[in-house]
Amino acid sequence: MRDPERHLDESPPPMGSPSELSAIASKMMKHPKTLTHAAPDDDSSLHPGHFKRKTNKLPTPVWFGDPSAASTAASASTLAGQLTSEVHAFVAYTNTEVESAQNSVQDSIARLNATLDKKWPEAACHATCFGSFASGLWLPTSDVDVVVHGIPSTDLTSTQEVLAALLSTEPWVRHVSVVGTKVMVVKVILKHCGRRMDIAVETADTQHGLAATEIVRAAVMSIPVMRPLVLVLKTFLREKGLNNAFTGGLSSYALVLLCLHYLLHRPHNRVIASSSSSESDDGDNDVDEHDEVGTRAQGVYNVGAGAYAMARVVTALENAFYATTFHRPSRFTPTPLSQMIHWSGPVPGAAV
Predict the structure, then answer these.
(1) Can you tell me the distance from the alpha carbon of 79 to that of 85, in angstroms, rounded to the nearest whole number?
(2) Where are stretches of biased composition, namely Basic and acidic residues (predicted)?
(3) Which of 77, 89, 223, 253 gets the highest tally of CB atoms within 10 A of its CB?
(4) How many separate domains does the chain show?
């Protein structure tokens, strides 16, 4: 709409005389950086809009370490070969990260034991790890599950509250809270690293957890291909926000049982599992498909009962299959494995 305040005799500013336009064009030719559509200065191709690409190089996922390792994996003739090489590199990288984190975890356990000994010197209290940290399937981003043995109390609720109050005064603890789940736990955030630790007091339920840890540890020892599979899928579910049973995802234990069932019952994997079992030094640690791991009566051991977002888990796995099968390298997913989990490592220089 025309501005009523504007005078009718106003006109657009003049374009300039031909001599002025010629001078501007001559100046732009002397300084080509001012041109919008610059000519390429290398062998890179141009977009349809004729803008120059910044680079043709894709980033290297952190688990490869250097671009040459990524190139070696990419040179495999099949997708299965590429994924195999990349999973090996991913597991090696994860092992390094776990080893560097284990020292701080063990230091925190030692501090916790010192605190328990100070509070109950005559009770011989002690804390031990269970779950994925004890079974060898732990990721550096995962919580650490701890059970405390020997606290002299018959009231479980008051014991948890006393333990939480005790830990809240410790200088190595940033935050403490008590969560009333099936197994009441004291959730602790460590001050020096920000890692989370779930501390439970010994009960019948924690005894089941300790027994399950031994079953999983035996499976990891007798089936070597299980650990890489679980580590990749745990990372995958974490990136999708589906690794927490409280929000409807799959718990770590449910995922382990899923992988174990797959390895024992898939026809092409049964031979792998049985041959791997024969390599175990101790036959008592072997796990096979007929092992009794608990009753199913009334769903007592239905570890996936709380996974109300199972449809999202299934959809995520389907999407990962197609994304990997039809992988197209991009800046954010340069390799098949990074395409699957949609993650290629932390940004260099980013805060942890």
Answers:
(1) 10
(2) 1-10
(3) 223
(4) 1
Q: What are the C-alpha distances in Å from 343 to residues 91, 139, 231, 301, 331?
A: 15, 15, 14, 33, 11
Rounded to whole angstroms, the Cα distance separating 84 from 88 reads 6
On whether the CB atoms of residues 277 and 287 are closer than 8 A, the answer is: yes
Percent helix, strand, coil in the chain (nearest 5)?
50, 10, 40
Pairing between β-strand 196-201 and β-strand 126-130 as defined by DSSP bridges: unpaired
Strand order in 144-149's β-sheet?
Answer: 126-130, 144-149, 196-201, 185-190, 173-179
State both tokens at 211: 């027994």
Residue 231 lies in a domain: yes
Integer-rounded Cα radius of gyration of the chain: 29
pLDDT in tens, 90-139: 999 999 999 989 989 999 999 999 999 998 888 888 999 999 999 999 99
Task: Tell me which residue range forms the domain holding 125.
Answer: 67-341
* CATH code: domain of residue 259: 3.30.460.10
147: pLDDT strictly greater than 90: yes
Distance CA 281, CA 277 (A): 9
Contacts of 288 (CB under 8 A, 6+ apart): 264, 273, 274, 277
Q: From 175, 172, 171, select the one nearest 189 (Cα to Cα).
A: 175
How many CB atoms are located within 10 Å of the residue 276 CB?
18
Q: How confident is the model at residue 52 (pLDDT cuts 50, 70, 90)?
A: very low
In a domain, 161, yes or no: yes
